[in-house]
Amino acid sequence: MTEYTNDSQPDVNEILQIRREKLAELVENDANPFSVTRFEVNISTDQITDNYATYENNTVCLAGRIMSKRGMGKATFCDLHDRNGKIQLYIRKDEVGEPSYDQIKKLDIGDLVGVSGVVFTTQKGEISIKVKTLTLLSKSLQPLPEKFHGLKDQDLRYRQRYIDLIVNPEVKNTFITRSKIISSMRLYFDTQGFLEVETPILNTIPGGAAARPFITHHNTLNLDMYLRIATELHLKRLIVGGLEKVYEIGRIFRNEGMDTKHNPEFTTLEVYSAYSDYNDMMTLTENLVCHITKQVLGTMEITYQGEKINLTPPWDRISMSQAVLKYTGVDFNQITTDEAAQNAMKSIGIEVEATDTWGTLLNKVFEEKVEQQLVQPTFIIDYPVEVSPLAKRMNNDPRLTERFELFITRREIANAFSELNDPLDQRNRFEQQARQRAAGNEEANMMDEDFVLALEYGMPPTGGMGMGIDRLVMLLTDSPSIRDVLLFPTMKPKQGETE
Question: Which of 205, 98, 252, 182 minimizes the C-alpha distance to 476?
């Protein structure tokens, strides 16, 4: 069969018609591939290639997709790909018989087959399968993207991930690595005595983060509900209930913009440990990331988009005010009023609103001037109370909270607190957030009376941490966009898909 190049490839409609005619012929000859219900597979391609001495001259059965095909007289060579790799098939007419060989010659790139054959090495030294029998398991009626150039259209790759996985093997490796990262994460927490739990996705009150929620409607209850924007408040209820060490890996939904770091639905880890504080959470976070990196990648030194990142502990720990002083020269510890903070920000080009306070401006200048500087793993600690409604105040400075965020490659990877367990302070902060919401801030927290009630029963001192799993996967797979690590990222419908 000819392997078409971009210059010689026939019209797609012609290819579609030819493939359907081949299927019709198969059906007419009682060889409908879609009637096959199963095929016994006893090995994968990588097992053969990694352990050739064990399987040499043995008969094996494996299945996969035909990704290339070339004829040489009375023999045909094919490349068969399965989940773990690829291997060459060597098919001789005198080995499989003329009728079978005639059908094999009609195979198309993309067809799924099952083969039985003997493992051997060709004269050129390539590990191969000398095929005894070949069964067509599924007919590919659509042509794959041109072999030598693959699927490069980013939009199409995200929309039709199944094609992306077929023709770009490195993409498959990314998602295998993602699975390993999450498995390693679970192993770490399970061996540290944490209990994995599940909390509701549908909520009557969205809480635990400053974010705009998705709204849905429950018909039976005639009630508007929200997809969760965080798992935090339910997990802390479990701490009140005495579970003490809990974690959840779950999907989160936020009705916000999309860019290389944000998708409306994403996966987070949240973990809570009673009798701990944010210092304990820093140690836990550092140990967790190092455990995962070492187990999955086997090294603590990685490269992300051309920059070398060293994850070897200990990581830098610096307060937000110290970081702002380092990169802007403004010392917030010497500023005592909102007006003085506003004047200081205007002097370095930060846009100021009349309602901005000392705390909101400290956070604003950090986000605009400092975040972009944080390439190596760095814990930024001691956040203003205005932007930390669920964190415990610092005893030596009530303007600040015991909170940190972990930054690597200029982006937030994790967020953690010494959790606020004072129900009176928590109610006051919810009321402040409710006033902001009433004034038009759709991301402000709603009052959650039941959560305050839970705190009134008594929550022990608790450390909590949330981590963006997608961002961690981006880091450890050198992926530039969150869409590269989500199998099915949110996409705007193509014209004609919706009214």
Answer: 182
